[in-house]
Amino acid sequence: ATKKHHVLKKVPDCKNCQAIRFQFESLGFCCREGKINVKIPTVPDELIRLFTSQVHNDTKYFRKHIRYFNSHLSFTSLGVTLDQRVSIAAGTGVYTFRVHGALYHRLDNLVPGSQGPRHMQLYFYDTEDANALAHRVRRSPDLDINLVRVILRILA
Ligand SMILES: [Zn+2]
């Protein structure tokens, strides 16, 4: 027996905001038919380069370790009760992230603890350029600090 895939039909882009639409989305789904002005920010060239360049080694490193960068640059940490039966079954199939109960975003105190600044504290604790980078290196010693510097410049 052959299985048929369901494929959505192409529909025209929104005539008001040019959003790419999917079949079955209502006309007002994106911008309420032009009532809401969707501000599309300019993406910095350096950010486009990080995500798309196939020739620079730093961009390949960035994409390979993107989850580490994401975690390093986050304001909060994740609080969950992980289902250990599936999450540590390494080598036995697809990694499975299954949570029991609620999922929290843990926000640290404003003042760093004995381990030094982390998460959002890194954004305002001792922000003198050289010191701020030193704190980040201490927090994530395996990350390419030059790339952290590039990303912080993009965020500034
Ligand atoms: Zn629209």
UniProtKB/TrEMBL annotation:
It comes from the Eukaryota. PANTHER family: DNA BINDING PROTEIN-LIKE, OS02G0701800 PROTEIN. This is Helitron helicase-like domain-containing protein. It comes from Oryza glaberrima (African rice).
